[in-house]
Design goal:
single chain, 119 residues, mainly beta
């Protein structure tokens, strides 16, 4: 059974930073998604199994960075210059080797962590 455990969410002022972590029970291609109230779940960033390939949503490019520590089976999302519109529940997701922006392609999900950005 694949387990994903997220941590690092919280309340921050606009312009601030947070780092999310997702510890997995194995090594997979990983991604972060987010879902705000009343909105669909959307892709934020993804990183391939080996870590050499990453992808970002246009809305977070230049502000967020996804990385991984394969020795710890942990993926991170460094979020800088946060905006109120980044407020959402952030979910970690895992699949085989290659990442994708489509949430229905990920069979494994974490429980989510709340990120709230105040203006």
């Amino acid at each position: 059974q694949v387990q994903l455990v997220e941590s690092g969410g919280g309340l921050v002022q606009a312009g601030g930073s947070l780092r999310l972590s997702c510890a997995a029970s194995g090594r997979y291609a990983m991604a972060w998604f987010r879902q705000a109230p009343g909105k669909e779940r959307e892709f934020v960033a993804g990183i391939a199994w080996g870590g050499g390939s990453t992808g970002y949503a246009d809305s977070v490019k230049g502000r967020f960075t996804i990385s991984r520590d394969n020795a710890k089976n942990t993926v991170y999302l460094q979020m800088n210059s946060l905006k109120p519109e980044d407020t959402a529940v952030y979910y970690c997701a895992a699949r085989g080797i290659a990442t994708t922006s489509r949430p229905n392609q990920y069979p494994y999900w974490g429980q989510g962590t709340q990120v709230t950005v105040s203006s």
